[in-house]
Amino acid sequence: RGGPVVLGIETSCDETGVGIVRGQTLLANVIASSMDEHARYGGVVPEVAARAHLEAMNPTLQAALDEAGIGLDEIDAIAVTSGPGLSGALMVGVGAAKALSVATGKPLYAVNHLVGHVGADVLAADSLEYPTIALLVSGGHTSLLLVRDLVGDVELLGETIDDAAGEAFDKVARVLGLPYPGGPQIDRVAVGGDPKAIHFPRGLMHAKDAEKHRYDFSFSGLKTAVARWVERAGDAGDEIPVADVAASFREAVVDVLLTKAFRACADHGIPRLLLGGGVVANARVREVAAERAAAQGVTLRIPPLSLCTDNGAMIAALGAQLITAGHRPSGLGFGADSTLPV
Ligand code: KG4
Ligand code: ZN
């Protein structure tokens, strides 16, 4: 398959990602993560992330070119995440992309991180049809999108009004004395736990919230409820039933995420749902999503995990589609925008 050769740079959070595609074909996807450096803080520290991007950028870029087996001169264009994300982190990627563009004379495309997550799907063998609903869940975002056209018509239906779902996993893991990142740990200890053992609150699911926040999420109340529950049990001298707490917490998150995603599918008459972001690694998310998709006649798409978590290939893939659709380059007059809308 042909198409433009695009190099994509992603630095919105703690992953330095450089990917290369030829049209819809993946040539390279290299990721350097600063996750280990954040572990002792229990979450991503923006300043640490920015510094790590700076150190990782050149080696990651070179590794991606090596993996693709091409030189910089064989690239047709450069794409970079300009937002949303952590300001200092984004600036490193944007700066690197601009420098590359000036040095090589190749056109530069600024792209939206969230739309990039959806764009990753074109790299799969049988890619998505539009319109589709997309649920993107990571440590930095929890967003529900209606994508009518990837390169021109993307609508934000809802998002978290406080913590991201991955952040809630990380914070609850900490309460349970589990290491960072918390998601995989919660998944691990929830095995054998009873998801119905404790009823934790489901944010923004009740009638009074139904209209205004129909597609929005809230996880900070849930996180606090788990912390209180564990604290009370500790005060009472009880042994904490870690497996039950983890399973019950996970069930609450999964229930809210998927109820709202499938509600969006039903409301808009769109029988397609794409999942993206690191939380999609969650075993229960996958299980319940598959069950509900079958029950509701929805086609479920989950790209391979290496394309679900933050990466440069998804940014390159979106860039290639912008070029194919005839979009003009962004030039150099844009900057990092931590709250860039879709
Ligand atoms: O997409 P991602 O790698 O990027 C950032 O947010 O930077 O997502 C990382 C997030 C973390 O909050 C992590 O705890 C969560 O995804 N995560 C999971 C699982 N694996 C990773 N959450 C729930 N269950 C998992 N198995
Ligand atoms: Zn992301």
UniProtKB/TrEMBL annotation:
Xref: SUPFAM superfamilies: Actin-like ATPase domain
Family, per entry: Belongs to the KAE1 / TsaD family.
HAMAP family in the record: TsaD (MF_01445)
EC number: 2.3.1.234
NCBIfam families referenced in this protein's UniProt entry, alphabetically: gcp_kae1, T6A_TsaD_YgjD
Catalysed transformations (reactions): L-threonylcarbamoyladenylate + adenosine(37) in tRNA = N(6)-L-threonylcarbamoyladenosine(37) in tRNA + AMP + H(+)
Top-rank lineage group of the source organism: Bacteria
Gene name of the record: tsaD
Lineage of producing organism: Bacteria, Bacillati, Actinomycetota, Actinomycetes, Micrococcales
Functional summary from the UniProt entry: Required for the formation of a threonylcarbamoyl group on adenosine at position 37 (t(6)A37) in tRNAs that read codons beginning with adenine. Is involved in the transfer of the threonylcarbamoyl moiety of threonylcarbamoyl-AMP (TC-AMP) to the N6 group of A37, together with TsaE and TsaB. TsaD likely plays a direct catalytic role in this reaction.
Residues that coordinate or bind substrate: L136, V137, S138, G139, G140, D170, G183, D187, N282
Start and end residues of each Gcp-like domain: 26-316
Enzyme's top EC category: transferase
Taxonomic source organism: Herbiconiux daphne
Cellular compartments annotated: Cytoplasm
Molecular functions (GO terms): tRNA N(6)-L-threonylcarbamoyladenine synthase activity
Cofactor details (free text): Binds 1 Fe(2+) ion per subunit.
Protein name: tRNA N6-adenosine threonylcarbamoyltransferase
UniProt KW keywords: Acyltransferase, Cytoplasm, Iron, Metal-binding, Transferase, tRNA processing
Cofactor entry: Fe(2+)
Residues binding Fe cation: H113, H117, D310
